[in-house]
């Protein structure tokens, strides 16, 4: 079967995560079999600026199926699917809002004479690139990636499952040192304003308390009291240690998001335990003397060998992106829905993202009444009181329009 020759570009944008290289690999391998040319755009949209300025030549950006051979006897060794990060480099910040910068990007894209662009990014970076695509009349295909898993209309984004595995392993290791020293271990995890990572890893890692912005948007006195009550109950059952997972999107009592939310949780547990003890609540006496330690996992969550699921997901997404270009179905987001790879109109996705960002809420939050929350509660994990989830009630959760294909 013959395929009309096409020139397509591919880039990674936003924060890195495991599985990006597996998407690149799939796009290159699938396109090469069709006789197409693939151009890797270095460092997101900045690569287009380099082309416009003449600091990079198009021929130097061309990728091929064996473009990542290792020197020596192991010729043809294909390792991209195992590597984290992005071999193209990524860009977390840019100045595309400046007209002169946007014009350079558009000029660079034009000089490459691309028939389509595969943009791998999260909701923020896809929003920015989509705006450029509209201005330049680009044929764009979006591939969702983020350890936060907060891109709307897709059940999974590339990188999320590996991050869950990384956090789960960290919680496993923290459990044994917590038990050995009878400590309360507080693990702070990423997720931005979504709690998917904390919730999934917390359940898998045996957490006693999981704090996510959808169910504990603010660490008020009521929430701290319930956390202390959970820890006190464990101690009464002769469990002398506890594991607390807190997502970075949870806010302090002042309703603002601060760094070091893990340290704040540890501090509040101690202070509120002292208060309860003074009110003749003997079960809380001594809780303030427990050694509480905080671990901020940080950017370790963005690294690590991609899990088998992330490699499969990334590969399937990459192949779907090429198929959409071949069919002329442009301006779509590749998604994982009901165990299958589908696609959604990018204008619908970006419209929801922009609306949610304007209203300062997550575009794809954890469902407070969903299966994962129910699973945690059935295990006796404290995940917040239902009354705290007012900021993320059902009317704020976007429903996936199943009629759109």
Structural class: alpha/beta
The whole-angstrom Rg is 23 Å
Runs in which pLDDT lies below 50 for 5 or more consecutive residues are 390-405
Task: Indicate the overall shape.
Answer: elongated
Q: What summary fits the major beta sheet?
A: 7 strands, mixed
What is the strand content?
A: 5-15%
Strand order in the largest sheet: 3-2-1-4-5-10-11
Helices and strands, in order, run as: EHEHEHEHEHEHEHEHEHEEHH
The number of strands is: 11
The total count of helices amounts to 11
The helicity comes to: 25-40%
InterPro entries: ATP_PFK, Phosphofructokinase_CS, Phosphofructokinase_dom, Phosphofructokinase_III, PKF_sf
Pathway: Carbohydrate degradation; glycolysis; D-glyceraldehyde 3-phosphate and glycerone phosphate from D-glucose: step 3/4
Catalytic activity: beta-D-fructose 6-phosphate + ATP = beta-D-fructose 1,6-bisphosphate + ADP + H(+)
Keywords: ATP-binding, Cytoplasm, Glycolysis, Kinase, Magnesium, Metal-binding, Nucleotide-binding, Transferase
